[in-house]
Amino acid sequence: MTDMRLDLRLPNNLGELDALSTRIEGFMEDAGVPPTPAYRLQLAVDEFFNNAVDYGYPDGRAGEIVIEVSRTGDRLDLFFSDDGDPFDPFAAPPPDLDGTLEERRIGGLGVHLVRTFADHFAYARENGRNVKRLTFAL
């Protein structure tokens, strides 16, 4: 398998999500990524994109989201950055999974799943951008 890479730059608009998902799915297929890691990376992209658009730009300003996906040998890497307000999703405590659904606080489950599924994850604030890097073993 040759190394493959997908680079996307998108406006911070939820209307982009369907086309984004289609592009990621096509890349996974072309890169020969097995279904489980493909699903896990897609979940991470969806979660980060939704969170960036919903919470990163509270003033409604236009922004840019950059997504890079690469397959290198038996590894799948995701680089996700946005120019929204500073936010480290990995700093949030894991959600309370005990108790009934009605008792649990809303939010945090998607990032918790991403953190659990990824073999490596990191956040940094670089040049005014939120940067998340994840690695998934194939």
Automatic annotation (TrEMBL):
UniProt-listed Gene3D superfamilies = Histidine kinase-like ATPase, C-terminal domain
Q: Which residues form the Histidine kinase/HSP90-like ATPase domain?
A: 11-135
- Does the keyword section mention Transferase? yes
> What keywords sit in the KW lines?
Kinase, Serine/threonine-protein kinase, Transferase
Organism annotation:
Ancylobacter polymorphus
Pfam families in the cross-refs: HATPase_c_2 (PF13581)
Q: Does the keyword Transferase apply?
A: yes
Report which residue ranges the record marks as coiled coil. none
The protein, known as? Anti-sigma regulatory factor (Ser/Thr protein kinase)
